Amino acid sequence: MDFEIPSHVREIRYRVQTFIESEIYPIENVLEEAGSESREAMRSLMEKAKEAGLWALGHPQEIGGQGLPFIDYVFVNEVIGRSPAAMVALGTHSLQDSLMLKLHASEPWREKYLIPLVQGEIFPSFAMTEPGVASSDPTQLQTRAVLDGNDWVINGRKWFTTGANRAAYTTVMVRTETEDVPVHDAFSMIVVPTNTPGYEIIRDVKVMGERQGHCEVDYKNVRVPVENLLGPRGGGFKIAQQRLGPGRIFHCMRWLGQAQRAFDLMCERANERVAFGKTLGEHQQIQKFIFDSAAEIQQSRMLTLHAAQKIDQGNEARVEIALIKVAGASMLHNVIDRAIQVHGALGVTEDTPLESMYRQARFARIYDGPDEVHVSSASRRILRSYKAGDGWDFGLH
Ligand SMILES: Cc1cc2nc3c(=O)[nH]c(=O)nc-3n(C[C@H](O)[C@H](O)[C@H](O)COP(=O)(O)OP(=O)(O)OC[C@H]3O[C@@H](n4cnc5c(N)ncnc54)[C@H](O)[C@@H]3O)c2cc1C
Question: Cα(383) to centroid of ligand 1, in Å?
């Protein structure tokens, strides 16, 4: 097992990092604002990334990407994570949705939407979560679709459909089957263009003081053709699982990139700033911040690369994915929190990226399944293995 960045990946990883540092960092404040200036700045970055040969690196070649193999792309995600704007600027934001369309969409949908999606001409969005039910248990989802002739007719309410306000379509998880069908076969995914009558964005929900496109959407008799169904009827949970596994590895690598940036800022500040006759870094309590952060980043990195290797070998790695999601989100939060503390009042201003990173880190413990759900599912798997007499030998997992 080798956790070194493979030599053939170093150059592309370095080029991505340089692009982010030289092109994105200087205009991050502009990109964070809503409005036409920010949209134009992003469009121009996307063009620059294409010209530099850095666009859609992980998408398969047959849909217009550059086909970087999974493990190579894992290491590239680590540097993409340094700036929240980098995913869109480099065209990686659509990876999960385009793979889902490639594998499960009907021919007309693939033809119409797949290439523009990968090219960044249109944006996707994804809707599972509903305001009315605890959506960490998605078997409770209430939005329904019924077949009427050649159309699906959808009714319900979703929220936290991230990016719905700029998306061309939303992939919606809905109940399509009756109560007698086993619940994990009762839900389906249906693609809904956002300009379909009855699809109405109620509000862009403000989160921790900002509007970031986490939309609440009403579906009132939304009618779409049968071919908008992804995969087979009742296949929603299987498709969702397929979407989430590798996606969580990429999330966790990007969190490591964020943590690296916070760690860099913390160490630079600790070496520069003087208080009580010595640099902050010469005070033991600050050294402990640096020590704890280094240990947590390295632990999280090893865990994530180990999980990535298992996924690459065809293993679903359910326990390992749960471990990295929970450990990674906590690491991210802790490292950014310490970096803010070392910056004093400056740390909570918009003069460094830490304030914005801190908000995003808080979300990480909730989206893609709250921590508690991962803790519970991983622990149950381990306990089942003990019950079956197999134990859980870390040397073998
Ligand atoms: C920034 C952000 C972006 C998001 N983007 C999207 C998106 O694009 N599309 C989308 O569909 N959703 C999105 N979500 C929603 C997210 O997936 C849900 O918030 C998440 O699945 C939890 O569902 P819930 O909010 O209904 O919480 P609930 O299910 O109500 O859970 C609330 C709390 O209950 C506790 N809990 C739940 N289950 C257990 C358990 N088994 N054991 C112990 N405690 C438990 C946890 O502490 C949990 O945080 C986003 C969320 C955020 C914050």
Answer: 25
376 Cβ closer than 6 Å to some ligand 1 atom: yes
- Pairwise CA distance, residues 221 & 199, whole Å: 8
C-beta separation of 143 from 158 below 8 A: yes
pLDDT exceeding 90 applies to what percent of the chain?
A: 93
Q: Which atom of ligand 1 is nearest to the CA of 368?
A: 17
Cβ of 295 below 6 Å from ligand 1? no
Instruction: Give the pair of three-digit tokens for residue 178.
Output: 């009756």
Query: Is residue 91 within 8 Å of 55, Cβ to Cβ?
Result: yes
The response to whether residue 136 sits with its C-beta less than 6 Å from ligand 1 reads: yes
pLDDT digits (tens, 9 = 90+) for 296-325: 999 999 999 999 999 999 998 999 999 999
pLDDT digits (tens, 9 = 90+) for 183-208: 999 999 999 999 999 999 999 999 99
Cβ of 98 closer than 6 Å to ligand 1, yes or no, is no
Ligand 1 contact via 261 beta carbon (within 6 Å): no
171 lines ligand 1 (CB under 6 A): no
- Residue with structure tokens 């019950």? 387
Helix 354-364 vs helix 318-343: angle between axes, to the nearest 10 degrees? 150
Say if ligand 1 is within 6 A of residue 60 CB. Answer: no
Please tell me the residue having the least CA distance from ligand 1 atom 17: 367
> Chunked in runs of 10, what are the mean pLDDT values of the chain (397 residues)?
87 98 96 89 97 97 95 96 97 94 92 94 97 97 98 98 97 97 98 98 95 96 97 96 85 97 98 98 98 98 96 93 97 98 97 96 95 98 98 93
Hey, what domains does the chain have and what are their CATH numbers?
Answer: 7-105 (1.10.540.10), 126-230 (2.40.110.10), 238-387 (1.20.140.10)
Residue 126 Cβ inside 6 Å of ligand 1? The answer reads yes
Give the integer Cα–Cα distance in Å for 217 and 204.
9
Task: Report which protein residue has its CA nearest ligand 1's atom 21.
Answer: 136
Transcribe 87-99 into DSSP letters: HHHTT-TTHHHHH
Are the beta carbons of 218 and 200 closer than 8 angstroms?
yes
